[in-house]
Amino acid sequence: MNFNPQLDLRLVRTVPVSRADVWRAWTEPERLKPWFCPRPWTTIDCEIDLQPGGVFRTTMQSPEGQLFPNRGCYLAVETHQRLVWTNALSAGFRPSLMTETCGSDEAGFMFTAIIELADDPQGTLYTATVKHADVKGCQTHAAMGFEQGWGIALDQMVAMIQSSARD
Amino acid sequence: MNFNPQLDLRLVRTVPVSRADVWRAWTEPERLKPWFCPRPWTTIDCEIDLQPGGVFRTTMQSPEGQLFPNRGCYLAVETHQRLVWTNALSAGFRPSLMTETCGSDEAGFMFTAIIELADDPQGTLYTATVKHADVKGCQTHAAMGFEQGWGIALDQMVAMIQSSARD
Known about the structure:
The structure is a homodimer.
Chain A: E1 8-15, H1 19-27, H2 29-32, E2 42-48, E3 55-61, E4 67-78, E5 82-86, E6 89-90, E7 94-95, H3 98-102, E8 111-120, E9 123-132, H4 135-143, H5 146-166
Antiparallel strand pairs in A: 1-9, 2-3, 3-4, 4-5, 5-8, 6-7, 8-9
């Protein structure tokens, strides 16, 4: 996967859980909601139609109770290996309006996210890449705390997987 | 395929050529350029990377010599059956800037195009569906002459296929 440092953000981590468990945490609503937002934010709703052109929709809630709906569309679904979706399209590959997807042209941005999973002696090599349309979108996302936010969410995911394995 | 008459445009025709020939005319640059623009417009360049995430790029030329580049990305490639691409994304599924894709926010619009081919006693049932983000984009495309333009191009395609069969 080409990486353009002007336009793309990336988080690479080795996590002590299996590829199959990471895949489930990304693709089953009940296993996504517990970890998807850095707490004290929460994910209160999630809809997944796991096929290219299928919807990926979440609703995040701020600690003050404000709701932030996100709507996107899957582009590639390669079980246990690679998951790609974008907020530039909605269900059925229909183009999204920037204003609908992002709230406002100023703060929002279109992106495509790619989760890649590979075997690693310690568990799974986890690579999350987010591609933006332009430098401004990439910088906006970086300034929002992409790396910290996605890192904390990943920690929450690993803790959830380990906790459910102990049950 | 759901059809929303507020947001989608569609051309349905039976054409007296095979699905395989229509597929080649859509997916091989040298077989696309002769028919893709209603004459006297021409298609002077075409790049095709026929896989989801691969580029679909054309350059049209007006009778006055002005160039109009178009850049999109394939979303689904089902040989002889279904071809889907969008100008809302560029190669590698990267979101496109509206201003880059469409020249200006006023005249342009994002779309996803779906070509579906089915067997028919007379040859091939050809269905071209174009999905837009909003009513305005759909109306803009209709006012530009979607139905006539795509119809003329299809006639040119059929003539090219029949002509090359006679060679």
